[in-house]
From TrEMBL:
Protein name, as recorded: ArsR/SmtB family transcription factor
CDD domains hit by this protein: HTH_ARSR (cd00090)
InterPro entries: ArsR-like_HTH (IPR011991), HTH_ArsR_DNA-bd_dom (IPR001845), HTH_MetalResp_TranReg (IPR051081), WH-like_DNA-bd_sf (IPR036388), WH_DNA-bd_sf (IPR036390)
Keyword annotations: DNA-binding, Transcription, Transcription regulation
Record-linked PANTHER family: TRANSCRIPTIONAL REGULATOR, ARSR FAMILY, TRANSCRIPTIONAL REGULATORY PROTEIN
Ranges for domain HTH arsR-type: 7-104
Gene3D superfamilies, per database record: Winged helix-like DNA-binding domain superfamily/Winged helix DNA-binding domain (1.10.10.10)
The organism's taxonomic lineage, starting at the top: Bacteria, Bacillati, Actinomycetota, Actinomycetes, Streptosporangiales
Kinase keyword on record: no
Superkingdom of this protein's organism: Bacteria
Annotated SMART domains: HTH_ARSR (SM00418)
Pfam family name, one: HTH_20
Length: 109
């Protein structure tokens, strides 16, 4: 595999795969955290989301989110930075991401 992670194209995003990825509480917390803080490193997301899991477990969760097309990762030096693929998700499944992150955003108001 190349240095850059492989991401599915927008047109191949699958609603069942996206929903399955979001069904896990740790992955849902990761998505909500990314929605709140924006681009962030893997370790910082884990900290900000309050996840107490091993590095390998966190890597697994991040791989599932990336393969489902929910996140995009890029390498910057020794760090891997993650962002939500909001534009792609909104184009394929309008309103889904907002519905998923709304409880997190409502808690901020």
């Amino acid at each position: 595999m190349s240095e850059e992670a492989i991401h599915p194209p927008r047109e191949e995003l699958s609603l069942p795969k996206v929903l399955a990825a979001l069904a896990d509480p740790a992955r849902l917390a990761t998505v909500r955290t990314l929605a709140r803080v924006g681009e962030s490193s893997c370790g910082q997301i884990q900290h900000d989301a309050g996840l107490v899991v091993s590095k390998s477990t966190m890597s697994h969760h991040l791989r599932i989110l990336r393969e489902a097309g929910i996140t995009h990762s890029r390498v910057q030096g020794a760090r891997r930075l993650l962002t939500l693929r909001r534009d792609d998700l909104d184009a394929r499944f309008p309103g889904l991401l907002d519905a998923v992150i709304q409880p997190e955003l409502a808690a901020l108001h």
